[in-house]
Amino acid sequence: xxxxxxxxxxxxxxxxxxxxxxxxxxxxxxxxxxxxxxxxxxxxxxxxxxxxxxxxxxxxxxxxxxxxxxxxxxxxxxxxxxxxxxxxxxxxxxxxxxxxxxxxxxxxxxxxxxxxxxxxxxxxxxxxxxxxxxxxxxxxxxxxxxxxxxxxxxxxxxxxxxxxxxxxxxxxxxxxxxxxxxxxxxxxxxxxxxxxxxxxxxxxxxxxxxxxxxxxxxxxxxxxxxxxxxxxxxxxxxxxxxxxxxxxxxxxxxxxxxxxxxxxxxxxxxxxxxxxxxxxxxxxxxxxxxxxxxxxxxxxxxxxxxxxxxxxxxxxxxxxxxxxxxxxxxxxxxxxxxxxxxxxxxxxxxxxxxxxxxxxxxxxxxxxxxxxxxxxxxxxxxxxxxxxxxxxxxxxxxxxxxxxxxxxxxxxxxxxxxxxxxxxxxxxxxxxxxxxxxxxxxxxxxxxxxxxxxxxxxxxxxxxxxxxxxxxxxxxxx
Length: 478
Known about the structure:
By secondary structure, the protein is mostly helical. It is built from 23 helices and no strands. The chain has helices at about 5-35, 45-65, 70-95, 100-110, 120, 140-155, 160-185, 190-200, 200-205, 210-230, 240-250, 255-270, 275-300, 310-315, 325-330, 340-350, 355-365, 375-400, 400-405, 405-430, 430-435, 440-455, 460-475.
């Protein structure tokens, strides 16, 4: 009986899912025109059916894969069905999204950022239609996102929901990559950690859209997995995963990849592993980060350290807070401007960047709060932020010095603070734009929170062992 019971429970769960999925699909089939009226697709019913079909193909692939975590992935992929192909439809009905432009470019070849360019003819990887160059421009996220969507549309056809399912799968792989980093850190599989990452509300939602966000989430996860293998195990091969994640991430969101790489340097220098491995990685990363900083400094006209204050003003003002761009984003999912934005700009302009940073960092990590809610979407974000703030406060109370000796914890905290310092300025200008950007930092925060708070996280014995091992390695080097 003990052997048969799990099988029965599994079959019961599968039957329940099939029943719910059928009911949801039938209801949506009758309402798909109203739900998908913003999508420029003549036969929106067929478009939705193709999305369901591609979800099923990927589900079968996961079930038949060799991956030892396929049960975890399949469980999360089932939940993704209801997010991507049910709940997301109501969001798409209400709000305008960049995803529509990415889909439309596969049909018409037009994108509003590139007037007069037909991307159906000029999407190939090593062409640059905006400048007439015969080389691929690094760091141009929108260009590369269009190229990627055009590429996958060859296989999915010109169907919005099918493309969205493909990118939702990237989001699933991103949660898995961060989970594998935790497995490396702890030295053992901890399935509950995967569910923490995969089902955290903002991670689950924003990793399921058609856009850059699931892609950069996946690439940051690959970077985290590579960093864990380098920092925890001292495996130089982890540097391959780290490089792939950062280099490809630079081609999606350049400043995010640069921040992740720069924040990794202190952890590399702090690591008590093999000195040669550490030196090689540092020597490779420094010129790479300098190269990556060039397009960012050009875009924001940063020529010297004093220009950083100008950058914060540009971000916090949101490209002129009264502009159409800001009002548009405020209408579709956010608050037009966060309380305190004017005061922050005034402090920065007066040279008091240090006084403004705490407000900016807090805003980047924990706002909007309940008293800043203006619609249902920001209300859900505010509830999640309160929960996240509570977990962080509890973690700060429980955290011991040994946690900060762990290189992955150190990197995650440092990156989260640096990220919030820059993106918090954007969020002050507009909550709607800032909400989805948090997908770039939430997995690092959730990873640290799990390691500190959960009983299956870093135990006192493991922290003591890590501290002792670090001391032994350092003595051996000397």
